[in-house]
Amino acid sequence: MRRTIELAVFAITILMVSMIADAACGQSAPQASSERPNIIWLMAEDMAPDLECYGTAGVHTPNLNKMASEGALFTKTYCANPICSPNRSSMMVGVHQTVINAHHHRSNRDIPLAAPFKPITSWLRDTGYTCILGNSLVMNSGRKIDCNFKHTAVGPYDGVTKFGLFDKQTDFSPADQPFFNQIQLVVTHRGDWWNDVRAKSKHPVSLNDIELPPYFADTPEIRYDWAAYLDQVEYMDNEVGLLMQNLKEQGLDQNTVVVFIADNGRCNLRGKGYLHDTGIHVPMIVWAPGYVKPGTVVDDLVCTTDISATILKLAGATIPDYITAKPFLGVDQPQYRSYVRSARDIWDEIDECSRSITTKQFSYIKNHMPEVPWATDQAYLELNRPALHVMRRLKKQDKLTEAEMTFFREQKPAEELYDLEKDPDQLENLANNPEYASVLDEMRAKETDWLSSNPDLGLDDLGNRHPEQGLAAETARAGVKANEPELWERLEKGELLPTSQWMKKYRPKKKPATVAPAPVSNDRVKKKG
């Protein structure tokens, strides 16, 4: 039976229009229109490829399935960063966040982008596109931006000092053509609405139908949290259907390219914030009449930054020399990657520095701060991940299996190497296995190759980071424990609770992280990886 989430009344507007489109494949595609297409970029939040069309158990996503059957489904899309604001920054500019000084989460928001970098909306405006943020049919009107450089959402943009990223916040219409519309799909982000969405679902995801990864303890609390997450995915899928219907009703469906992508992986253990696959591997589905052969499946490597070069190419806009993104649509030969380089730096209270190289078969992670455990305290994670509390309790009782203990090691290894074909859950670290010594050397060489042509300001500022960005989540956790004992007891039992008010009340107050901008010469920014 197909599921349908009942789109009921919320304090926030909760109907989401979602779309998917853009695809480049090495196969013959229908003839594209000579007119410049409208472009819709749908950004789901905190979601791994947990869709029915990717084979995820227990979830039903008929609208996204339809998009994939009419467009292209990308199986190997990886983020430049596993956290929202750094990765969104890289996607909006087309350059990795470690190059543009946007690598720490929610930092440098009082500093404009250093020359020559500009957000892609600047280049689209120069080409005559109307740049629109959000849509009234989606939760919170889909207007989140979350970029780590000085900007305002809407207003003039002169490419130097004024950073209005979009022309207006409104719904798209035929009068706006050609338009670029970025819409945020927030429902899959951890939020106080999760229980409400599940409660109002006509067919909530069954706890018996889901499949937990082997590094999760199999308990009713963890199964409930996982099912509630998939309920949000199904809710979003219904919103995708609404957008498609709205696009067709306005007669815009034949000359609009829609890209559906997530900003980073799912918010759970080893997901968002971590360089394992569930943190950086995201879904991307492209719906583009005239540009892509329906039913295409692309197994080549794509970086999420590549969406920017693709959008500029489709629009006929200038693709500046500094852009390291590679267009995968609108070109005769899509420029897929031999590897994707990703980076993780400061995330709220967690000071961290890790780098990764992902190929089709292998994942290599270099942990520059192995002394910082994966399970390091953080207010946001403490209050929003039931599995963390449940598995901490089981750990104290010595009831976790070896696989389930993976996230709770006291220290990270300096290097990690995984065979994604044989070990998709990344449980067997091959870095010290002599049989894989040559593979390890190859992956190290790829990291060296990347650094030879691209600055990494996150490596440059190691040892010179702000103390208030250190491991200080205990303040927020202690505040809840001391003042809200009943709440904390429920959290420790693994209950999924609306916690945003408590985060705001007890989270440590700190100024946004700021790192002095470093000028970047174009000769160091090459198109690698």
TrEMBL record:
Keyword Signal: yes
Gene Ontology terms for molecular function: arylsulfatase activity
Keywords: Hydrolase, Signal
Sulfatase N-terminal domain mapped to chain residues: 37-317
Annotated signal peptide: 1-23
EC number(s) reported in the record: 3.1.6.1
Segments of this protein annotated with the region Disordered: 499-529
Top enzyme class: hydrolase
Family to which the UniProt record says this protein belongs: Belongs to the sulfatase family.
Protein's name according to its UniProt entry: Arylsulfatase
Originating species: Novipirellula herctigrandis
